[in-house]
From TrEMBL:
<protein>
    <recommendedName>
        <fullName>Ig-like domain-containing protein</fullName>
    </recommendedName>
</protein>
<keyword id="KW-0732">Signal</keyword>
<keyword id="KW-1064">Adaptive immunity</keyword>
<dbReference type="InterPro" id="IPR007110">
    <property type="entry name" value="Ig-like_dom"/>
</dbReference>
<dbReference type="InterPro" id="IPR036179">
    <property type="entry name" value="Ig-like_dom_sf"/>
</dbReference>
<feature type="domain" description="Ig-like">
    <location>
        <begin position="138"/>
        <end position="235"/>
    </location>
</feature>
<keyword id="KW-0393">Immunoglobulin domain</keyword>
<keyword id="KW-0675">Receptor</keyword>
<dbReference type="GO" id="GO:0002250">
    <property type="term" value="P:adaptive immune response"/>
</dbReference>
<feature type="signal peptide">
    <location>
        <begin position="1"/>
        <end position="25"/>
    </location>
</feature>
<dbReference type="InterPro" id="IPR013106">
    <property type="entry name" value="Ig_V-set"/>
</dbReference>
<keyword id="KW-0391">Immunity</keyword>
<dbReference type="GO" id="GO:0042101">
    <property type="term" value="C:T cell receptor complex"/>
</dbReference>
<dbReference type="Pfam" id="PF07686">
    <property type="entry name" value="V-set"/>
</dbReference>
<dbReference type="InterPro" id="IPR013783">
    <property type="entry name" value="Ig-like_fold"/>
</dbReference>
<dbReference type="InterPro" id="IPR051287">
    <property type="entry name" value="TCR_variable_region"/>
</dbReference>
<dbReference type="InterPro" id="IPR003599">
    <property type="entry name" value="Ig_sub"/>
</dbReference>
């Protein structure tokens, strides 16, 4: 069943597409999304399963198309952590419990944030997307479909995000990524710049009276292609 949301176009809009093989059970893979106001602090908590005290801790920021950036670290031998070079002057604050606060969010703070621990086994938290609203822009709506679909190996699925009203394609950018059981964090599988002249046979944009439609087609070859697919639209 499709869902309908309303938010600011400067926000990254996250929608879930569950794709499973007919032999695989559905697993509830929750991810967080924060739409931040530029004048209100945002705090990210470090929540890990089977968390231990005597391990190094870290925060990472992930932006599509870039390598993860280390935001903060806390060594197991230290009582407090510290912000990484460069991030100590960007309005971040690190707390004693290793939560991370963005004191005055702006567009440079947008991205997906993870905390984690390294030890015998690396652990990661569920990713949190932070998007910052621009008060000067009007609201838009996004319709997504399908919300859930079961496929057999060898079949293909078409995922769709419709952005309303129909903004100019040059104003929009779409991200596609996937999370699945056994992965510590979602995998970015495609980034589409609607202003680019390049094309990809798996992704296309079409416009209609209902808005700008983003389509992504994925062939499901085996269970490694199953999981939760996300559409993220930014303006």
């Amino acid at each position: 069943m499709a869902c309908f949301m309303k938010t600011a176009p400067s926000s990254i809009l996250i929608f879930l597409f569950y794709i499973i093989s007919s032999a695989q059970a559905v697993e509830d893979l929750k991810r967080e999304f924060i739409s931040a106001q530029s004048d209100k602090p945002v705090t990210l908590d470090c929540k890990l399963e089977h968390q231990t005290v005597k391990e190094n801790q870290f925060w990472y920021k992930l932006i599509s198309g870039q390598e993860p950036q280390e935001v903060a670290t806390k060594l197991e031998t230290k009582v407090t952590g510290s912000l990484s070079p460069g991030f100590d002057k960007l309005g971040f604050k690190l707390h004693d419990n290793f939560s991370l606060t963005i004191e005055q969010p702006n567009k440079a703070h947008e991205g997906m944030y993870f905390c984690g621990q390294d030890g015998n086994t690396n652990k990661f938290s569920k990713g949190t997307f932070v998007a910052v609203k621009d008060h000067s822009q009007s609201e838009i709506s996004v319709l997504q479909s399908p919300a859930f679909q079961t496929l057999s190996p060898g079949e293909a699925v078409n995922l769709q995000c419709t952005v309303q009203p129909n903004n100019q394609p040059a104003d929009q950018q779409v991200f596609w990524f996937r999370s699945s059981a056994g992965r510590s964090f979602p995998e970015i599988i495609f980034t589409h710049h609607s202003s680019s002249s390049s094309s990809n046979r798996q992704c296309e944009i079409s416009s209609s009276k209902d808005g700008c439609v983003f389509n992504f087609t994925k062939n499901i070859f085996n269970t490694t292609d199953t999981g939760t697919y996300y559409c993220a639209v930014a303006s």
